Request: fold
Amino acid sequence: MDVKRIALFASGSGSNAQKIIDYFADNKLVEVNCLLSNKPDAFALERARKAGVDTLLFNREQFYHSTFVSDWLQERKIDLIVLAGFLWLVPENIVREFEILNIHPALLPQYGGKNMYGMNVHKAVLDNHEKISGITIHYVNEKYDDGAIIFQATCPVSYDDSPESLAEKIHALEHQYYPKIIEEIILKNH
Ligand code: GRF
Reply:
């Protein structure tokens, strides 16, 4: 059986990307083949380089008005794209050509959409006095946070949580579940 190849997309710190890279480091069936970013200073790029994972930086023009990124992924025979804190909407040509997963730091369909990322999500959850929040792993389509939901896990929100403390709880859940769900999906569907 041919090894299954993951391409990670990340715009930020990349703590999820790191967990995914570590999780598959010794896996014979699945490899993290590359990490792509739209941000030259994304710490995720540094994490990838350190782990010996190939990287690609691209700009808006290349992403939305050329096949530069999809050609690169096709050449590498990527089976699954995994978004891990990637903030741009994925263009239609890439959505059509690849299976793509995303993780969202709240319980979709609530608290999703264009400006619902990072601390905005946790602030909105706290402003609405929610008692629980959580994570959603879902397929990606051409809209923000809209594809079919694959997995959710919850955590309690306490009255004294700050956006930062809630973010910490959510990150812990993401790190616990995202690599495992990715493994299940890639082995099942490819
Ligand atoms: C995560 O909270 C994820 O849910 C969201 O972006 C954040 C990325 O965090 N999509 P990190 O860069 O992996 O630490």
About this structure: Residues 12-17, 84-85, 103-105, 174 surround 5-O-phosphono-beta-D-ribofuranosylamine (CB under 6 Å). The CA atoms of residues 44 and 50 lie 10 Å apart. The chain has one domain: 4-189. The chain has a mean pLDDT of 97.
